[in-house]
Amino acid sequence: MPRVLICDDHPVIRDAIAVCLRAIAPDCEIGVAATARQALDRLGEPVAWDLLILDLGLPDARGIDALTRVRARAPDAKVAVLSATEDRDTAERVMRAGAAAFVPKSTDRIALLESLKALLGIAAPPDEPDQPLPGSRPRDDDLVHEALSGMSPRQMQVLRMLMRGLPNKEICRELGLSENTVKIHIGAVLRALRARNRTEAVALASRVGFGVE
């Protein structure tokens, strides 16, 4: 039975993550904290937590201060950082500080589920091929255009890099994002296009002229 501690000062965020956790691990034991101090207290409990989901915008901690304090208190704890921003500097600092994952708050529900599965060891290993949402892919150009119009700017940026043939590590370097975050965006692109893999996603986007200046 996995034990997950959610630290975020917004109850709505905590509740949403808890719902996702129970969807993938019904027997999951979930703890909550609204401040860095509360999280540190919970980390001192006799039974270890399998995962700490930590918000960067806590009222009693600035930037990665909460992550630094958590890592000092529980160096073996697996920490996934939630962030309202995706800027290069934040992503790099978070990963250098020892986070297991950097998850933007803009992440959609399905991508969040996949990320949580990976962090808890429920999903396929990270090196497995990208997994799209099961179902039929768009077969006419109108549906492809509709899928593209529903993507976030970051997802479209990642798709353009896929069309350039860049591997995940190169996309990480160019965007200043963690590999986990890039995989989340790629998964979102595949689901939007109902593509089986990145090759098919590129083919669909190319067919309608996406990325052509």
Could you explain the architecture of this structure?
Mean pLDDT is 83; it is low at 123-129 and 131-139. It is elongated and about 55 Å long. With 213 residues, it is of the alpha/beta class. It has a five-stranded parallel sheet with strand order 2-1-3-4-5, sandwiched between helices. It folds into two domains: 3-119, Rossmann fold; 141-207, Arc Repressor Mutant, subunit A (Orthogonal Bundle). Helix 1 (11-24) packs across helix 5 (109-119). Helices cover 49% and strands 11% of the residues.
- Secondary-structure element pattern, one letter each: EHEHEHEHEHHHHHH
Note the overall shape: elongated
Strand order in the largest sheet: 2-1-3-4-5
Give the amount of beta strand, in percent.
5-15%
Number of helices in the DSSP assignment:
10
The CATH homologous superfamily of the largest domain is termed: Response regulator
* Helical amount: 40-55%
Low-confidence stretches: 123-129, 131-139
Rg value: 18 Å
Kindly identify the CATH topology of the largest domain: Rossmann fold
**Main sheet?**
5 strands, parallel
The overall pLDDT, averaged over residues, is 83
| Helical/strand content category | alpha/beta
Distance between the termini: 51 Å
Second rung of CATH, namely the architecture of the largest domain: 3-Layer(aba) Sandwich
| Total discrete domains | 2
